């Protein structure tokens, strides 16, 4: 089962500022209160291509996502780790982010009994996977002053018939949560952009 | 909790990561470089190298092996060659 949700938003700020704000989004302590589900952000890897102006970065995000009881029961934990890969193309002015978040089964008793019922050794390890793709590009109508953000979230649930109806509910909850969080994320982005605009304004 | 070994999730709100200071130093340097140079087309030179090195050393020292493996599993599927190699190399 895969469900995808698309969203688009126009920032009335230039791409340079919006992409810079995206880097600051999770790190700023002020925003940490709003984006309280983000616990830690660590940069694991970075690579700058000095010829082409491409910047590749990998970050690890630790997220607190308590969710509904049945999700907790399945997943067995409410902390999840995500990997965020970002490619910024300085030449063409584009920023692409991909966040993969995977909930893994933690060997709860409920899962174990389901596992026993299945004849083959079906791995439940990759149970729920959420993939988020975000792009920041200059707005086609106003490329020097505006930025368009397109965001796509796909939620993939392992199709086990015994869990299908449960999975459906989980999926729905996940989607709701993501929608809420992406609104919050957008507010934070707007605020950082405004702050950076003021900061860069000539005195 | 982060990637680091910690016992109580309550401690996670304000980061108690032993690398927090080094991480902030690096991220501040990076953000400044990104806004002041990179987006203006000055990408001919890698910067914040010293900050990055110190931060990475701290991370590889304190990363919880199990969590790191989990993260690399996800990462490996995104980009099987480059990223894992890079992490191994510096740990």
Structural class of chain B: mainly alpha
Order of helices and strands of chain B: HHHH
Helix content of chain A: 25-40%
Helix content of chain B: 55-70%
Termini gap of chain B: 20 Å
Low-confidence stretches of chain A: 104-126
Largest sheet of chain A: 7 strands, antiparallel
Helix/strand-derived category of chain A reads alpha+beta
Give a verbal description of the structure.
The complex is a heterodimer of chains A (203) and B (91). In chain A, helix 1 packs across helix 5. Chain A has a seven-stranded antiparallel β-sheet with strand order 1-7-6-5-4-3-2. Chain A has helices spanning 15-24, 29-34, 69-75, 109-117, 164-200; strands at residues 2-11, 38-49, 54-64, 79-89, 94-103, 128-138, 147-157. Residues 104-126 of chain A have low confidence and may be disordered. Chain A is of the alpha+beta class. By secondary structure, chain B is an all-alpha fold. Chain B is built from four helices and no strands. Chain B has helices at 20-36, 49-62, 65-78, 82-90. In chain B, helix 1 (20-36) runs antiparallel to helix 2 (49-62). The chains are: A alpha+beta (203), B mainly alpha (91). Chain A binds chain B through residues 15-17, 19-20, 23-24, 27, 36, 39-40, 42-50, 53, 55-56, 58, 60, 62, 64, 79, 81-83, 85, 88, 90, 98, 100-102, 104, 196, and chain B through 1-4, 9, 12-13, 15, 17, 19, 23-24, 26-27, 30-31, 34-35, 38-41, 43-46, 52, 55, 59, 67, 70-71, 74-75, 77-79, 82-83, 86-87.
Concise summary:
Chain A is an alpha+beta fold and 203 residues long. Chain A has 5 helices and 7 strands. In chain A, helix 1 (15-24) packs across helix 5 (164-200).
